[in-house]
Amino acid sequence: MSELVTGEAVALELRPARLPSRALAVLLDLVVAVAVYVVVTIALVAATASLDDAAQFAVSIATFVLLLVGAPIAVETLSHGRSLGKLACGLRVVRDDGGPIRFRHALVRGAIGVVEILMTFGVIACIASLVSSRGRRLGDVFAGTLVVRERVPAARTGFLPPPPPWLAGRFSELDLSAVPDGLWLAVRQYLTRMHQLDPQVGWAMAERLASDVAARTGTPVPQGVPPTAYLAAVMQERQAREVRRAFGNGAAVAGHAPTASYEPRPAVPPAYETPPAVSPYESRPAVPADVPPVEPASEATGRTGSTGFVPPA
After folding, report:
1. pLDDT tens digits for 26-45?
2. CB 262 within 8 A of CB 251
3. Per residue in 14-42, is it b (16+ CB within 10 Å) or e — as a string?
4. Fewest CB atoms within 10 A around its CB: which of 26, 27, 42, 273?
5. pLDDT digits (tens, 9 = 90+) for 4-30
6. What are the angstrom distances between the C-alpha of 38 and each of 31, 41, 108, 215, 252?
7. Full-model pTM
8. CA nearest 79: which of 103, 110, 96?
């Protein structure tokens, strides 16, 4: 990936084209251009047979410039950076800021391409592409352009990392109705791309998003919970609620039981996770010291002593 920054300070991640794909695209363009040039040259030779040698030489030079230099420039300008070879290989020429090229960019690339591609058989262009970190030839450097790949494999950006197990069901009672969709989208994009960010930038972004979510829910972030784990747990809780709203509580979807990670557990405060053991005798009222001891009941009559006090069963 190559990060380009637009004029609006938006970072674009583009995949630069490397030497093999660019060489194949140039080869296809040259094959088409040379085939057209040969056909046009044969037609012009037959049409200008009555002219003198100087006129025929001028016509041949003009034909060479128009077909092998002017035609690629016109095609890249009109197609916004996609010639026939680049279209077949899934490539495109863009500006350094990611925008479409214009006539001046195509003109500079075509003029320098005559020297580094046609006159030197592509040797200079290959060396420049190998040396450049983004695979640019000299024409791209002077024109301020870059050849990028338009056909890229689909990245797995939809995977949301699960929260830590000790946060499962922690926010089942949280009110998420006031959180706007734009904030949910920002949280989802951060969670799916947090491993691609700089650690310091990612941590600051997670803190900002966590504070925004906490402000919308009215409940602060629990102490000791990292902002990234908090966002993952809240996002999982939202997904669990969406699943329950769509399919009902505990309903199986397409014959499969709901995923265990989406079953929220009742929130239990940490201080009460393990209740202290209480002796069964502590719940009985203490007997004052001045009360005489109770006589045991007779096994025959089942009566007590003179006090009339019957101990609880």
Report:
1. 999 999 998 998 999 888 88
2. no
3. bebbeeebbbbbbebbbebbeeebeeeee
4. 273
5. 544 444 445 567 888 898 999 999 999
6. 11, 5, 25, 72, 69
7. 0.48
8. 103
Written as six digits, the tokens of 26 are: 């140039």
Residues in contact with 304: Cβ distance below 8 Å, sequence separation at least 6, in sequence order: 294, 295, 296, 297, 310
Q: Are strands 11-14 and 2-5 parallel, antiparallel or unpaired?
A: antiparallel
Tokens of 141: 């450097």
What does the alpha-carbon distance between residue 31 and residue 33 come to, in Å, rounded to a whole number? Answer: 6
Mean pLDDT over 126-148 rounds to 90
Integer Cα distance of 69 and 116 in angstroms: 13
Best-predicted range by mean pLDDT among 48-52, 123-127, 180-184, 246-250? 123-127
- Give, to the nearest 10 degrees, the angle between helix 227-247 and helix 199-217: 50
